[in-house]
Amino acid sequence: MRYLPLALLAVALGGWQPDKSADAMEIQPPELATDPVVDMHTSRIALDWAGLYEGLLGCSDCAGIHTQLTLEPDGRFEIVTRRLVRGAEPSSAQGKFEWEPGDNSIVLDADGDGQRFTVGEGRLVLVDAGQTQPAWGRADATLAQSSPAQRDTRQDLGDMLVDHRWLLVDATDAANRRIDTLFPNAERSFVFHLVDSRLHVQGGCNGLRGAYGFDADGMLEVTGRASTMMACEAPLMEADAALSALMAEPLETVLIRGLEPRLVLLTTAGDALVLTGELTPEARFGAPTRVFMEVAAQTVECEAALLEDGRCLQVREIRFDEQGLRVGTPDEWQAFTSIIEGYQHQPGIRNVLRLERFDPPAGPNVPEGPIYVLDLVVESEVVPQ
């Protein structure tokens, strides 16, 4: 009889089963109650999208629409636009924007004309009505976000003019037709340099020089214009004449800031010159060292050549005194394995160049070795082969 309690306990435990009633089934472990899955790859979540965006949007009857759009984290926006027509006044609006389903595009409210933008890394792309996909490659539909690198550079108009070399990329007349005369050669465009209140333009046949400043109305004015007197092919000389005529009067300036800024020059006749800016070596690397280099008429074969033909310039450094006379003995000829910015060698012509040499510290996006930039061609001589 002493084993009966143990037997009864075993029966009791063996016969116990979990309650499967409806009330018991309503109790769920917390981990089984899941929230909707959030896509962490949408522009709204993955990108630092709040801030100022700026660019030049397309215009059917003008050279473009300068647009500045600020997006706030709380869904507010401010947009400022100005048509590139001389004397045009900017207009502004404020309102709210909404994220579209998928959180990759935004739509401005009625105060922003319902414009729709796709949000990308550091940029907005305008999506036209009826367009299903953003045109990422269209410069005239893109607004670039202001970045820390941009804010580290000088942003005043005068400083921006000096700190960049300006390449002419487009020109239109009052009817918004391209001025083809200014682009006679697809591989050779006008480049503007503005240093110490002096303007120097290269790219056609002859270099154009003059003093520049701003008049009482804030217009860019070039005075004392002069040029070299070389004879070239007719299209190049016609380009020179056309540009000189456009710059004979004060020009209204519109600056579109950014890492790739644009400068627009507007004439009283309704013409528009559009230039893109690239930071000068001085603005990037600081003050240079001036050197003189003689370039031989003929190039030589070179293992470290940067050119496709496998050849390099032959160069040697020479020295001048304060009176401009050569002094000392020139260095030995050697193959030149770098690039001289602004210099294009013509076989059979020996040149003496005045160069600006930059020795930047190593770092990201900085080329190895010294950087040479052409300042002046001191001598030229045709050398018979």
UniProtKB/TrEMBL annotation:
<protein>
    <submittedName>
        <fullName>Copper resistance protein NlpE N-terminal domain-containing protein</fullName>
    </submittedName>
</protein>
<dbReference type="Pfam" id="PF03724">
    <property type="entry name" value="META"/>
</dbReference>
<dbReference type="Pfam" id="PF04170">
    <property type="entry name" value="NlpE"/>
</dbReference>
<dbReference type="InterPro" id="IPR053147">
    <property type="entry name" value="Hsp_HslJ-like"/>
</dbReference>
<dbReference type="InterPro" id="IPR007298">
    <property type="entry name" value="Cu-R_lipoprotein_NlpE"/>
</dbReference>
<feature type="domain" description="DUF306">
    <location>
        <begin position="161"/>
        <end position="273"/>
    </location>
</feature>
<dbReference type="InterPro" id="IPR005184">
    <property type="entry name" value="DUF306_Meta_HslJ"/>
</dbReference>
<dbReference type="Pfam" id="PF14302">
    <property type="entry name" value="DUF4377"/>
</dbReference>
<dbReference type="InterPro" id="IPR025485">
    <property type="entry name" value="DUF4377"/>
</dbReference>
<feature type="domain" description="DUF4377">
    <location>
        <begin position="294"/>
        <end position="358"/>
    </location>
</feature>
<dbReference type="InterPro" id="IPR038670">
    <property type="entry name" value="HslJ-like_sf"/>
</dbReference>
